[in-house]
Amino acid sequence: MMIIQPPFLISGDTIGVMAPSSRIARADIDCAKSFLEERGYGVFIHPQTYLHADDDPATQYAGTVQEKVSALHDLAANSDIKAVFFASGGQRAMHMLDHIDYTLIAQNPKIYMGFSDNTSLVNAISAKSGLVTYHGPTFKRLLKNPQADFNLRLLSGLEKSIPLEGATTLKNGTAEGTLFGGNLA
């Protein structure tokens, strides 16, 4: 399978947001949206993201599998959306995997970013479409991530490497290959 590198973000691009896992509170949506807008990006919050946003915090899910897959497909097909940030982690993203149109995603390359429960989603998109995806902060976590601006520079191609001060090398050398990100939680 050919590896597809999505275009880098540029100022003025629109970032789409959908919730493949747990619900996200409206206040968190508004704060993260403002954070990105202050940095020159447009932000489109898919209506699915607001499902259960105002519910009791004990309500976990951000819609049915079909509602989530439909939101993902809407953002994938929208040529105005240059990146898709997953709203939050939580649970149930893996239920989407068998229902995703990976050809649609491959034919409309853009940045997809998330972590935690979304790891299954970004890795499935990479494995089944060939698209490079990003294991990085969810939309909700942007405000709590001291590296958020650095992450945006990486997605914009303004940073080419990640400094690893204080890292311990087990074996010196170089390597080439395909890297799949993830977390062990």
From TrEMBL:
The keyword Transmembrane does not apply. One of its GO terms (molecular function) is carboxypeptidase activity. Residues 15-136 form the LD-carboxypeptidase N-terminal domain. Keywords: Carboxypeptidase, Hydrolase, Protease. SUPFAM superfamilies: Class I glutamine amidotransferase-like. InterPro entries: Class_I_gatase-like, LdcA_N, Peptidase_S66_N, S66_fam. This is LD-carboxypeptidase. It comes from Micavibrio aeruginosavorus.
